[in-house]
Amino acid sequence: MGMITRVRGRLRSLHTIQKLDPEMRDEKIAETVCLLSVLFLLPYCSRGHSPLLVSLGGWCVATYSFLVLPVLISANYKYPVRWLRKLFAKIPALLKKWSGPVWSFICRVYSPLDKCEKMFMKMTNLSNLATQLVFFMMCDRVLLCSLGGTNCPQKKVTGLYSLMFYNVIAYCVSYIKELIEKEDWSVTVNMTQHSNIKHVAMSATKIVLEWTKAITFIITVTFMLLVFGLEQGLEHYQPTPLYTFVTWTYYMCTEKVFIELFPPFLVFMRLKQLEALEALYAPVILRYYTVSVATILVIFLCFYGQVRFTSIAFYLTVYLRLKDMVANCLKNLRNEQALLGQFRHATNEEIENCDDVCAVCLSLMERARVTPCHHLFHASCLRQCLSASQNCPMCKREYTFVH
């Protein structure tokens, strides 16, 4: 009540404010705006965990906030109180003074952890396994239990079953890929590369290893067919189509055997916009997808109150993978794009005048880059030439760029 009385007194004395000098008048208006702001913000400061306006309904809260808060922000911005002006004037100087020492202190404290993170990400198999486990646990909590509307502890093993089945599929794919790419089918090993003398011990070891892999592959496939055919021990394994799609695509984007198949797939698609940088675009696209899906699941987990697990999941599946992407594959892609960015794209008329043929590979050109000496090449051919020399492969002149 005392504050309301003060506000009324301020409003009654507005006619006296007009008689003051401009500086005093602005100061009085600023004080009045400040008191009005406090008054209108009182409904948000009621006792308990929820604002006072919640009792009137969500639409009342939204309408009140939409109408009042922008007016208060704009009024305080136009008529700031004197002490706020002084405080805001000192903030840039304080930030400039303390930003350097504080940042150096943070870097020094974070340096040991940064080394551990880099070492962990270099251990690709271990980091991928840990990331996959945490991601599948997130899918269990969000896609099966939380979105299903029931608390189902028995469904939390679905992630382990799925990861096991996906690993079996990855092993089968890698073995079939090895058989397709295999060139030497001989069961013996020569003593040297140019000798016909057989190494008995190495030949016996090779035979045992090859037969072991073949028998393991057959047993694995047979076991999987029996499990899914008889459905024994799969009472609690009930994945939804959405769960299967999300987990399977994420597993493919993080497993080595499938990652190696993605660049050839991009090459097969023949996307002209990639300019023969499929090997550099592939890991970036895969990382963007995995980080985006993990971020969405982490956001959902934040609404279910699982703070500890959410923090671990965000750190492993979002922060570390995003950091590794920026430091490695995204950095390499940007370097190559910056290198090619020095050479502009050729127009259709320029390509036609060049007989539609690249001078390096003698293949037709649909897209090309133009050198400062006005020669046209494929982007991939130009990259290969730049890796060997900074001179034009046609006229042997050194590239000179005018900015």
From TrEMBL:
Domain (RING-type) ranges: 358-396
Keywords: Membrane, Metal-binding, Transmembrane, Transmembrane helix, Zinc, Zinc-finger
GO annotation, cellular component aspect: endomembrane system
Transmembrane segments: 52-75, 159-176, 211-230, 242-266, 286-304
Biological-process GO terms, alphabetical: proteasome-mediated ubiquitin-dependent protein catabolic process
A Pfam family the protein falls into: zf-C3HC4_2
Regions annotated as coiled coil: none
Identification of the protein by name: RING-type domain-containing protein
InterPro entries, sorted: HRD1_E3_ubiq-ligases, Znf_RING
Gene Ontology molecular function: any one: ubiquitin protein ligase activity
Source organism of this protein record: Tenebrio molitor
